[in-house]
Amino acid sequence: MVDPVRSRERMVREQIEARGVSNPAVLDAMRSLPRHLFVEEAFACKAYSDGPLPIGEGQTISQPFIVARMSELLQVEPGMTVLEIGTGSGYQAAVLAHMGVDVYTVERIRNLFFAARKRFMDMRLFSVKLKLDDGTMGWPEHAPYDRIIVTAGGPEVPEPLLEQLADPGRMVIPVGDSKRVQRLVLLEKAGGQVIRSEHGDVAFVDLVGQHGW
Ligand code: SAH
To answer: Which band of pLDDT confidence, cut at 50, 70 and 90, is reported for residue 1?
Structure first.
């Protein structure tokens, strides 16, 4: 494979900065993290290419730009507590952890959960806590969360997640009727009110669970 450091610099410049993501902490995380260690070995050479990649069990690691865009929309600050639904490879969680937040992440597929857990241990990323469960129910024990990010697409915003979001708080989630295309939805909670805005089309794998498909 080509030099991962140079591949990452190029990825950040051409796929992320060029498309308008400018948050320095997001760019720094994506320049630093070894994305090639989050994909199956056979795909390591494609890890810095401009798209999603298979991670087994019919699931995917998100396209680098989408990871950056969602991380920026969240507006995390060091010390915050963040809940992620859909651990998958663990890459998105690692990006957030690199930005200085405590990450709680939930995955429903056993093999992916164990693979991500091993990856975090190998990388000594101890600020990420994992749970094997249906994430549409959230993780009530550690609520409220300053930020919530859902990295799978569902038909609606799961009510338990909205309840577990702190006030003030921000949540980013792909929502759509179709199982292929969703709208990237930002929910901003403040003063007991929730403001909803949409930020373009995305294509995530299904959010499967009690408040999902
Ligand atoms: N954030 C991941 C993206 C993984 S794809 C990454 O950086 O690699 C989305 C993941 O969401 C899949 O692994 C899928 O199994 C998981 N998922 C789907 N529905 C879920 C649910 N209800 N609870 C937890 N995880 C779920």
So the answer is: low
Domain CATH for 145: 3.40.50.150
Examine the pLDDT at 125 and tell me if it is beyond 70: yes
What sign results for the dihedral spanned by CA atoms 154, 79, 114, 164?
Answer: negative
Strand 102-107 versus strand 81-85 pairing type: parallel
The reported pTM is: 0.97
Would residue 119 count as lying in a domain?
yes
Question: Catalytic: 62?
Answer: yes
Decide if 207 is inside a domain. Answer: no
Ligand 1 nearest-atom number relative to CA 94: 7
Which of 43, 60, 82, 87 should be mutated for ligand 1, with most atoms under 8 A from CB? 87
Q: Is 45 within a domain?
A: yes
Q: How many CB atoms lie within 10 A of CB 172?
A: 21
